[in-house]
Amino acid sequence: HRRRESVRTLCALEAVVLRSFGPDGGQVLFIRDTAEAMLSRSGSRILTALRLEHPLARMVVECVWKHSTVTGDGSKTFVLLLASLLRMIHTTVCKDPTVSHTCNSRKAAEAALARRLADELLAFVLEDLDDLITVGVVPYGCCVSWEDFTAKTQSPVHTNNHHVQKLLASFFHTRLGYTHCDFISNLACELFASWKFKNDTPALSLQFVNDNFPALHTPVSGFPIDCSRLIEGQIIHRDFATPCPQTENQPVKAVIFTGYLESELLRAGEVLEVGCGEQVMEENSSMKQSIVQFSAWAERSLEWVIADLQSLGVSVLLFAVKQSPAVLALATQAEMCVVECISEDELSLFAQLSGSMPVSDFWMIQPEHVASLAFCRPVLLGAHRYVHVAFHDLEEKVMVKPCSLVICAPGEGQTDQYACAFRDAIRMLLTAWEPLGMTAHTASKRTCSNASPFQQRVLEPGCVIPAGGTFELLLHHTLRQHSRSRSVSDNTNMSLPAVSQLLAKALLILSLISDHSPLFPRHLYKQEHKTNPVQNCKSISCKYQLLLAVVQCVTMSHHLTRLPDGTAQEHAKDHPKHL
User: Fold this and answer.
1) What Å distances lie between residue 460 and 32, 325, 360, 508, CA to CA?
2) Gap between the Cα atoms of 246 and 225, Å rounded
């Protein structure tokens, strides 16, 4: 009964994500309690917006969220493949002739058999999946290179090259729709090409963009998506706290401060308690005198700090915290620009790009704390005014052209969706440039005679396969062949062919669900692929990680016990965690 309930729960999640699955899927409309509407095609956003009470459903959504946080893609495919595998395990268990027919013992035997199949499926995937993908899928794909980021157009000589735009266009097509996918993918390629560091691998450059993405993008509501663009330098999402001198494009010098510039006896919110009585009054009078002396000393100290900054040629002060009126007044008098309450992410990015060090002790300002900027000026983006800075000579030093991404959309919710899609695209590319989950040790254990020619190919990053169910169909055929060969060669263990058949059938169903699946024999597909290359593609590494995560979730679901309070707990079982 519990197993059937689990299948029904997954079928309900499947019905939700199926509406937006594939390149022609629609958007799902959610109405919040505040009457605010949300339209989305993102599987992770759709699933996390649901209010779920069933422990299995909550566990599945958590697994999907963890997977998409790492790989940026595959949330809807995760649910569809998981539901298909659970249905097949349930059907296999119900039809097994070895299960006892008495009521109580039959339920226990079915549950035990289902757990055993799930465990054997996980063991099979961990042991053999990378080898099977190597032999059956990789030869029909190709590898994209980092240089493809700069190739916007293709000459007739290079029409067979699969550029990164195809991978991104396929991703944005399913996430944002067909209308703007080419524009967004080209904009993403321009962003990645601008942040290509000299002598760095693609993974390191992409990781830098991913780590600093909150500081690298600016959402702007009220404009069409076509107004999205790249802006030279960095956008600091604060306005000037003091008047900004009209320096136009003149070079300026700036300093970052992590704390307060003025020494204060009492911080905001602190209270000084005083007592009464003759002796206390004398002490209070002495304290007042000390406070007056301290205030005079603090004012002189602040003047010295401002004078020291002027001697260094500093005209822009960047602060992580709000400053006192005295600081703002003296900075204005000295014609210095002040920017307060800058986020830690933005200050960290500024320090990395400028090569300067933040100041924690204002008595120790050294030349290495001073950043040289090409300019510092206000910029109006939508209804907000921000600070716009640019840096000197970075393109010559590290082959990088610092730029900020401006994401425009008619509404605030849409800008958030586009920003999330950009972030997920970065994660997807990071996963795509990772080698398949295979080490030299596992590669050396190959027993397939035709595996060695593809050994080096699978270890290369950036392997892709045409989209539209191609990966699932090719792996389905490979699993069928593997199952038949194992059935003939190994008569002592019949469970391996069984679990490989389960996975093969689930992949076939997923391939059929996908639009425009290439349903023709592999030799015809290979011939067709040579003459008419498919425009959209998917990362093989992302697909591999998805299969690992789904099978891990299948195992977890069969070792899940519902507690009296309605929560769920996994059985004490020593199986590996991959999510």
Assistant:
1) 45, 58, 45, 27
2) 32
Residue 344: pLDDT above 90?
Answer: yes
Tell me which residue of 88, 106, 65 sits closest to 11, measured CA to CA.
Answer: 88
Looking at domain 1-143+462-488+496-517+534-561, its CATH class is mainly alpha
Q: Rounded to whole angstroms, how far apart are CA atoms 510 and 505?
A: 9
**More confident site: 142 or 86:** 86
Tell how far CA 482 is from the center of its chain: 35
Q: How confident is the model at residue 418 (pLDDT cuts 50, 70, 90)?
A: very high
User: Which residue spans of the chain are classified as CATH 1.10.560.10?
Assistant: 1-143+462-488+496-517+534-561
Question: Strand order of the sheet with strand 463-466?
Answer: 142-143, 463-466, 537-539
Tell me where in the chain the CATH 3.50.7.10 domain(s) lie. 234-264+290-400
The number of residues making up the chain comes to 579
What 3-state DSSP class applies to 76? helix
Whether residue 4 contacts residue 87, with contact meaning beta carbons closer than 8 Å, is answered with no
Q: What is the pLDDT of residues 179-216, one digit of tens each?
A: 888 899 999 989 988 888 777 777 888 999 999 999 99
- Which among 213, 143, 203, 579 has a CA at the least distance from the CA of 421? 213
- Amino acid letter at 13? L
The rounded distance, in Å, linking the Cα atoms of 384 and 149 is: 32
pLDDT at 284 over 70: no
Rounded CA-CA distance 413/19 in Å is 20
Calpha distance 260→456 (Å, rounded): 56
The count of other CB atoms within 10 Å of the CB of residue 441 is 7
Report how far residue 401's alpha carbon sits from residue 335's, in angstroms, rounded to the nearest whole number.
Answer: 30
Nearest to 373 by CA among 396, 360, 356: 356
Please provide the CATH number assigned to the domain covering 234-264+290-400.
3.50.7.10
